[in-house]
């Protein structure tokens, strides 16, 4: 329905008005003549950047990295939001009930969320139905909707076909890059001026067409997201489509210009204008490293369904061949996960490596080396990888977890940056869990194994036992009336293992069942707590090896008694005229476990725990269940904390503790059943177990200022007056994206923790690690990480780079050199890498290499926002 209001007819119509009306009627009865064809206005392509900025409403300022923003003028009234109605207003005009009407002055047309203004408008009627079917717009035509603007010299609206066309235009439209789309303006906000803070694209075009308010079609057009005063990059194309219904843009015969210089051409290019996904090619990958040579890849993304997708990436590795990488992601009401598969047929470089390595180590008489060489000979030159992670929640009680990783050969992780060995070098986890959580009972069913890699040019890493399966059932029944807590822990596991390369001795395998019921009593007051606990560990083994049919039985039964108690004090203090609250929490933990000879029990999953402050207050100095250490000891500790009275935040915390032994320890990590942990001497003669005090353990965390903080963990051996273990870090960060962390780690290994025997001090670990992400200027950031191993002194890792991240584009240069291994002649080998990432915001990213893992290690995964717009 058409409404025409506020058309003020003059009392006297001049001859010129009558003449104009006459020609208008003539036009209405014949073929419509587009007045744009008679326009003599200069094309927008010749306008200066200053003129364009003014036309688009650009306001220059130094308050943001774009150097300004677009000012959205207020809309006239709420007619913008009246649906399915065409509303026209003007200052003066000639109204005709049969022919053409003319509106002049300030002509405003509102319909379905869009508002069009012009100096003059011709409204044409259908000669048969006499309904308005077209509008011509002349002079300063402006088409607006929230956060979108098109300015033109003239235009045409076809009311019957519901289409619009404008000629000789400037435009800007809000897009959102890869960020989540922001909500549209509400009605109240449109009545006021608004700053457009979203990433916006702008450009010029010979012609603009629109069949849908959210679909724009530009002919002979340009496109850029840079501020109009800079225009660092832009795309010129025969035609450009921006479809906000699908969140995609498309350009035909597109040329990319950097500072006015053409650098790239493509006959067709499809790009995102919001965060939605669509099938198509992603930006190509280019790179180089010393292990793979020059690299080029063309990822193809497949949006298969709203809840799953797939990315196939062929990578051409200059030194190796063609590698296919595939990543499949899925999400359902019950589960989410990722399946990654990679394959590289006929690796040319690996074939050469096989021949050279076999020749280099052929004279070795070491059985381990010879076994690893035989494995290398049999290795296929087709290199492959499989990695599957899945999380499933069936209901509020049951869930499952899968983490499966596999590679085709022992050298895959060395040659390819797969990201699978971030925490466990050369140990790939293969595990599936099913869990139940109820009010009183918890159950876990687990299948777990490891693929242990044995490169011949690296130190031997022992194989790990597989749990096939492990069944864990725990229960807890607290009684609120008596303050008694009844609990039980059950563990049934079958262990199996493959021998290490060249190891002739058969490793023990078998089943271990452990039942551990217990009871505790708790007494709590605001300033005191006291919790005695009694447990019984009942363990049964059936032990054999892969060559035996008959398994022998071994058992162990032990009572475990401990008392956990502590006090709580606090006071209010003032430091530097700032009110603080300080707490003091002394703690005492007593443990008694009688001695049981356990040398004939195998070692399946047990190690000696590294002493920490928290470890002081546990009853067993061993991890796992194969060893339960005898104990008659008391652990004493004290913790003090400081809190800000005004905010309640913790300012710092310090803890110090030590174990006092009333009896020498006799249980050690040795086994007559396991050749990896032989019992070479009497346990009573072990010097590591006859000290009457443990090393002193201290922990300190403190926030010095709003920007500075320190963390420290130290283990001081009072017997040797040496530091056994120490980590210290100092960190700085501020609100303007400047951060740096310096850490130092030291582990003394010149004494065997199992036997107490001396070891070479050269094996001590002393490592420094420095990371920084430092904003040099508004858009420039320095990033880097340097790791050094000081004993023995050798360069470990170094990654460094420079990043420029502006309003509409970003570039990052990264170089890296990482230690890989030591050769037979003690030569240190490194992998050198170089990356360049280039992002055009609102168009896509062009990256050389894939340094995301490197960047995350420097900046943290939550801070890696390169090329993103907010």
List the helices and strands and how they pair.
Layout: E1 2-5, H1 15-29, H2 49-55, E2 58-60, E3 68-72, E4 86-89, E5 92-94, E6 101-111, E7 114-125, E8 132-145, E9 148-158, E10 163-174, H3 187-190, E11 194-196, E12 200-212, E13 215-223, E14 233-243, E15 248-258, E16 261-272, E17 280-281, E18 285-289, E19 293-297, E20 300-305, E21 308-317, E22 321-331, E23 335-344, H4 348-360, H5 367-378, E24 383-393, E25 398-407, H6 412-415, E26 427-437, E27 441-452, E28 466-479, E29 484-496, E30 508-521, E31 523-525, E32 528-545, E33 552-567, E34 569-575, E35 578-593, E36 631-644, E37 650-661, E38 696-703, E39 708-717, E40 722-733, E41 738-747, E42 765-775, E43 780-790, E44 793-805, E45 809-822, E46 828-840, E47 844-848, H7 852-859
Parallel strand pairs: 1-4
Antiparallel strand pairs: 2-3, 3-11, 4-6, 5-6, 6-7, 7-8, 8-9, 9-10, 10-12, 12-13, 13-14, 14-15, 15-16, 17-20, 18-19, 18-46, 19-21, 20-21, 21-22, 22-23, 23-24, 24-25, 25-26, 26-27, 27-28, 28-29, 29-30, 30-32, 31-32, 32-33, 33-35, 34-35, 35-36, 36-37, 37-38, 38-39, 39-40, 40-41, 41-42, 42-43, ...
Give a brief outline of the structure.
With 870 residues, this protein is mostly beta strands. Strand 22 and strand 23 form a beta hairpin.
Question: Would you give an account of this structure?
Answer:
With 870 residues, the protein is mostly beta strands. The protein has a 26-stranded antiparallel beta barrel. Strands 1, 4, 5, 6, 7, 8, 9, 10, 12, 13, 14, 15 and 16 form a 13-stranded mixed β-sheet that branches. β34 (569-575) and β35 form a beta hairpin.
């Amino acid at each position: 329905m058409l409404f025409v209001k506020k058309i003020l007819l003059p009392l006297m119509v001049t001859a010129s008005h009558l003449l104009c009306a006459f020609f208008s009627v003539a036009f209405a009865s014949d073929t419509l003549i587009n007045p744009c064809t008679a326009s003599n206005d200069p094309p927008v392509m010749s306008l200066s950047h200053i003129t364009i900025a003014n036309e688009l409403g650009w306001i220059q300022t130094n308050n943001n990295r774009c150097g300004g923003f677009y000012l959205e003028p207020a809309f006239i009234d709420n007619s913008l939001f009246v649906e399915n109605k065409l509303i026209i207003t003007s200052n003066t005009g000639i109204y005709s009930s049969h022919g053409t009407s003319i509106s002049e002055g300030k002509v405003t047309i509102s319909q379905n969320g869009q508002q069009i203004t012009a100096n003059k408008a011709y409204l044409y009627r259908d000669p048969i139905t006499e309904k308005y079917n077209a509008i011509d717009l002349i002079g300063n035509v402006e088409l607006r909707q929230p956060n979108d603007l098109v300015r033109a010299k003239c235009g045409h609206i076809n009311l019957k076909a519901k289409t619009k066309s404008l000629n000789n235009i400037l435009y800007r439209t809000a897009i959102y890059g890869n960020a989540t789309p922001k909500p549209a303006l509400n009605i109240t906000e449109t009545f006021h001026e608004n700053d457009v803070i979203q990433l916006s694209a702008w450009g010029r075009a010979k012609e603009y067409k629109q069949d849908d308010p959210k679909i724009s079609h530009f002919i002979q057009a340009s496109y850029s997201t840079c501020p109009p005063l800079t225009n660092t990059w832009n795309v010129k194309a025969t035609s450009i489509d921006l479809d906000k219904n699908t969140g995609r843009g498309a350009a035909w015969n597109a040329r990319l210009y950097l500072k006015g210089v053409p650098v790239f051409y493509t006959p067709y290019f499809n790009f995102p204008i919001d965060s939605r996904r669509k099938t198509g090619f992603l930006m190509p990958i280019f790179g180089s490293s010393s292990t793979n040579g020059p690299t080029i890849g063309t990822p193809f993304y497949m949006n298969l369904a709203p809840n799953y997708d797939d990315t196939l990436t062929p990578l051409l590795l200059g030194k190796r061949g063609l590698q296919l990488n595939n990543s499949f992601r899925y999400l359902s009401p019950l589960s989410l996960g990722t399946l990654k598969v990679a394959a590289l047929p006929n690796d040319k470089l690996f074939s050469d490596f096989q021949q050279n390595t076999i020749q280099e180590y052929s004279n070795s008489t070491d059985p381990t080396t010879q076994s690893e060489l035989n494995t290398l000979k049999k290795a296929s030159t087709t290199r492959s990888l499989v990695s599957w992670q899945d999380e499933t929640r069936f209901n509020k009680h049951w869930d499952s977890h899968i983490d499966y990783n596999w590679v085709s050969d022992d050298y895959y992780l060395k040659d390819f940056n797969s990201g699978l060995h971030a925490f466990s070098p050369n140990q790939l986890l293969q595990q599936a869990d099913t869990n139940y959580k109820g009010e009183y009972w918890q159950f876990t069913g687990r299948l777990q194994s490891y693929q242990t890699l044995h490169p011949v040019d690296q130190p031997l890493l022992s194989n790990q036992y597989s749990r096939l399966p492990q069944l864990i059932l725990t229960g807890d029944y607290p009684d609120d009336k008596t303050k008694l807590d009844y609990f039980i822990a059950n563990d049934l596991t079958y262990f199996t293992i493959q021998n290490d390369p060249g190891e002739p001795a058969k490793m023990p395998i078998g089943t271990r069942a452990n039942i551990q019921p217990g009871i505790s009593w708790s007494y709590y007051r605001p300033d005191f707590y006291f919790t005695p606990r009694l447990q019984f560990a009942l363990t049964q083994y059936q032990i054999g090896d892969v060559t035996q049919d008959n398994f022998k039985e071994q058992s162990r039964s032990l009572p475990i008694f401990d008392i956990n108690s502590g006090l709580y004090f606090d006071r209010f203090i003032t430091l530097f005229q700032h009110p603080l609250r300080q707490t003091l929490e002394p703690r005492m933990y007593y443990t008694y476990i009688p001695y049981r000879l356990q040398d004939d029990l195998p070692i399946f999953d047990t190690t000696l725990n590294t002493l920490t402050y928290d470890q002081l207050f546990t009853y067993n100095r061993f991890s796992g269940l194969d060893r339960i250490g005898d104990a008659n000891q008391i652990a004493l500790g004290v913790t003090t904390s400081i809190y800000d009275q005004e905010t309640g935040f913790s300012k710092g915390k310090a803890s110090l503790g030590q174990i006092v032994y009333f009896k020498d320890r006799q249980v050690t990590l040795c086994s007559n059943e396991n050749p990896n942990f032989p019992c070479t001497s009497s346990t009573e003669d072990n010097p590591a177990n006859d000290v009457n005090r443990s090393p002193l353990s201290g922990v300190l965390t403190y926030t010095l200022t709003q920007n500075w903080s320190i963390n420290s963990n130290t283990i001081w051996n009072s017997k040797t007056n040496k530091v056994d273990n120490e980590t210290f870090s100092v960190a700085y960060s501020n609100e303007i994206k400047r951060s740096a962390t310096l850490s130092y780690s030291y582990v003394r290994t010149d004494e065997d923790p199992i036997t107490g025997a001396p070891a070479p001090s050269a094996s001590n670990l002393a490592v420094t690690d420095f990371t920084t992400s430092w904003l040099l200027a508004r858009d420039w950031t320095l990033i880097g990480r340097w790791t050094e191993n000081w004993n023995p002194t050798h360069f470990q890792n170094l990654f460094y780079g420079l990043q420029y991240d502006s309003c509409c584009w970003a570039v990052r240069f990264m170089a890296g050199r990482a230690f890989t291994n030591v050769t037979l002649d003690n030569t240190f080998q490194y992998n050198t890498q170089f990356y360049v990432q280039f992002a055009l915001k609102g168009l896509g990213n062009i990256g050389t290499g894939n340094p995301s893992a490197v960047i995350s290690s420097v900046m943290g995964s939550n801070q890696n926002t390169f090329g993103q717009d907010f």
